[in-house]
Design goal:
heterodimer, A: alpha/beta, 6 helices, 7 strands, 31% helix, B: alpha/beta, five-stranded antiparallel sheet, 16 helices
């Protein structure tokens, strides 16, 4: 695969912050394919992603890292397999204000389990300033039952620093020998 | 009449700290003080936390016996011969010293005296997102001790500190009590009480970072220090605790707070009794976005999480200064993320070095890109 085809996938339920997270680190304004929400999504947000979000990181030597956000609604899950082809890893964002974030966690980890087994996953928990339960420790406990032990960070998807640290953790889980700047 | 500029030479400060100091002189002293070359200086500011500090101090005293010396350090230094400025520096304290050395114009004095700004203006109390640390801050958290030979017993003792000789020991006790019994715990004996709410994972603390850092570095074993006898830990009724927490902006994340205190106390050292040879585990990645992220923290976590390793093994395979590994261990230990691995299997197999993948350089380039976006 050509170097310029590498991508990082952002996934998670509706409203978790995928679109915002991509926007916070993308080098160019992300392409967002959204529309007015029609179903129960409407109660969470007025616009929702129906195809995918796209952003880009432009490296110094001209290479591009593509940032793809999956549509959050399950009826679009047929696209998830397509999107993960060529991906270097998965960023899973979970909204802590949803009714059952643990169910969301398990659902997405199961849906992407083959991709995760080949690559890696990091988990960002959003909206913790609005709802602090479940706590990060609760996520860790649940993950160990799966059994997984990926990085789980509290994330504000609007904060470049938070999203950057999450992606950095993804890279380190893929290769701990990376040289830090 | 033109105001005369005070020329100050800063000794044992790295480039970034020099820039910070220049900025401070520009913003708070109206450029009435400037950093100068050694031969032009009338005042010398010496960073006593540096390894070569004593040597430099003697050299400056010999070469410039009539010059005023300002010693600066995180630790309290007893020195009656020179001026002392505690880190982190505060504008009005520095200007008071300079005023004493030579009269400053009133314009500079009045603008500074009303200003409590510190040279280092970072506030770690918020902890909302891990911050990029400058060199001075890194030193405050991980110290600057050089690596030692871990096979030489007479050197090994230098890497240890006894948490029970510092406030950290009390804090850890209180934290353990709160978590184990799921009870609100109060610590008294400092300027103001500290209250731990374990179920909410928050701590109530009405002290500034500067005060907290001062507490962390002071050994409670000193004869002059009676704080140790006054610190008390007790469980508290939830309702009563809530009533005592009058200011809602004084709550901090509990884990972030203990992490920070552990780093400030440890400064690159290990808690007494930590084995260098026995495997230790890291149970989970720390919540890095809400913690002080010291250099190589991610690398250490990624390396360590897969399999229990001894500290000797980590220092050998990671090839990074020991103080970063030791600080990271102390912080994870104090926040209950690390401990001794006691399973027979953990000692049976020696974990080997993790070899780089074929994409190492590629990932490093992505990392560089992410870092550049943070700046």
């Amino acid at each position: 695969m050509a170097k310029s085809d590498y991508k990082i996938i952002f996934t998670g339920p509706v409203g978790a912050g995928k679109t915002t997270a991509i926007a916070s680190i993308s080098d160019s304004a992300p392409v967002m394919t959204d529309t007015k929400a029609s179903d129960m999504t409407k109660s969470r947000k007025s616009q929702t992603t129906v195809a995918m979000d796209y952003g880009i990181l432009k490296l110094e030597d001209g290479e591009h890292i593509h940032l793809y956000g999956t549509p959050g609604q399950e009826r679009f899950d047929f696209m998830w397999d397509i999107l993960t082809t060529g991906g270097i890893g998965l960023v899973l964002l979970v909204d802590n204000t949803r009714e059952n974030p643990m169910t969301d966690l398990k659902f997405f980890l199961n849906s992407f389990k083959d991709f995760i087994a080949e690559t890696s996953v990091v988990i960002g928990v959003t909206q913790m300033d609005n709802e602090n339960k479940p706590a990060i420790d609760d996520y860790r406990t649940e993950l160990k039952k799966m059994p997984l032990n990926p990085p789980v960070f509290e994330v504000d998807a609007r904060q470049k620093k938070d999203v950057s640290l999450l992606v950095q953790a993804l890279l380190f889980t893929l290769d701990p020998s990376i040289n830090e700047v | 009449m033109e105001e005369e500029i005070i020329k100050i030479n800063a000794i044992e400060l790295d480039e970034r700290s020099l820039k910070t100091l220049s900025f401070f002189f520009h913003k708070f002293c109206n450029d009435l003080c400037i950093i100068s070359a050694e031969h032009e200086a009338e005042v010398f500011l010496i960073n006593m936390d540096s390894v070569n500090a004593e040597e430099q101090l003697e050299r400056i005293k010999r070469r410039y016996p009539k010059s005023a010396l300002i010693l600066t350090s995180i630790k309290l230094l007893e020195n009656k011969d020179h001026y002392f400025l505690r880190k982190p520096m505060i504008a009005k304290h520095l200007l008071a010293i300079l005023s004493d050395i030579r009269s400053l114009p009133s314009s500079a004095k009045s603008s500074a005296l009303s200003n409590d700004s510190e040279v280092s203006e970072e506030n770690f109390s918020e902890g909302h997102a891990a911050q990029l640390l400058n060199e001075q801050e890194i030193t405050a958290f991980v110290g600057d001790a050089e690596d030692i030979d871990l096979y030489k017993p007479n050197q090994i003792e230098k890497v240890y500190f006894d948490p029970n000789h510092y406030f950290l020991g009390f804090l850890h006790q209180a934290y353990q009590l709160a978590k184990q019994e799921n009870a609100v715990v109060k610590i008294t004996g400092l300027w103001r009480p500290i209250i731990i709410f374990p179920s909410e994972n928050i701590i109530y603390i009405d002290l500034t970072d500067r005060q907290l850092q001062s507490i962390c570095v002071v050994s409670l074993q000193s004869e002059q220090n009676s704080i140790e006898n006054t610190i008390k830990i007790e469980k508290l009724d939830l309702q009563k605790a809530i009533e005592e927490c009058a200011q809602k902006d004084k709550f901090q994340n509990l884990e972030s707070f203990i992490w920070k205190m552990a780093l400030w106390t440890s400064r690159g050292r290990l808690p007494k009794g930590t084995s260098l040879d026995n495997p230790i585990y890291l149970s989970a990645w720390p919540n890095m976005t809400r913690l002080i992220v010291t250099p190589y923290a991610m690398k250490i976590a990624a390396y360590w999480i897969a399999h229990p390793r001894s500290l000797m093994n980590l220092t050998k395979h990671l090839s990074i200064p020991q103080r970063y590994i030791f600080s990271f261990f102390t912080a994870t230990y104090m926040t209950n993320l690390a401990g001794s691995a006691n399973r027979a299997a953990d000692k049976l197999i020696l974990p080997t070095k993790i070899n780089p993948t074929s994409k190492q350089n590629f990932f490093s380039r992505i990392m560089n890109k992410l870092y550049s976006k943070e700046l």
